[in-house]
Design goal:
mainly beta; 4-stranded antiparallel sheet
Length: about 120
């Protein structure tokens, strides 16, 4: 069973940047998509960004142009570069891998992995 461990969260002021990392304990099947989700207090978990093994990416409208998802398959690591952070980006951020649609392509793996989350707090 692959385990996912997030890091890189913290507290920054609005306008600042953070880079989240998600290290997998082993390789993830190429037919799995990988994604970052977030959940703010009192709100539902939402998809922030996703990436396929072929590099295909997708972003929530709220983060387009500010966040960049990337991966280093040699290191089994997923990243999320977050720039121009806003107070509304405050949330617990989770990485995940599993079946998902990314930009009209279906990644249909059978496994589903989630990390424990890393807190991102943006102050005004």
């Amino acid at each position: 069973q692959v385990q996912l461990v997030e890091s890189g969260g913290g507290s920054v002021q609005a306008g600042g940047s953070l880079k989240l990392s998600c290290a997998a304990s082993g390789p993830i099947a190429s037919n799995c998509g990988k994604a970052w989700y977030r959940q703010a207090p009192g709100k539902e978990r939402e998809l922030v960004s996703a990436i396929g093994s072929d590099g295909r990416t997708g972003y929530a409208d709220s983060v387009k142009g500010r966040f960049t998802i990337s991966q280093d398959n040699a290191k089994n690591t997923l990243y999320l570069q977050m720039n121009s952070l806003k107070t509304e980006d405050t949330a617990m951020y989770y990485c995940a891998a599993g079946p998902m649609w990314i930009n009209s392509r279906n990644y249909d793996c059978r496994n589903n992995y989630w990390g424990q989350g890393t807190q991102v707090t943006i102050s005004s």
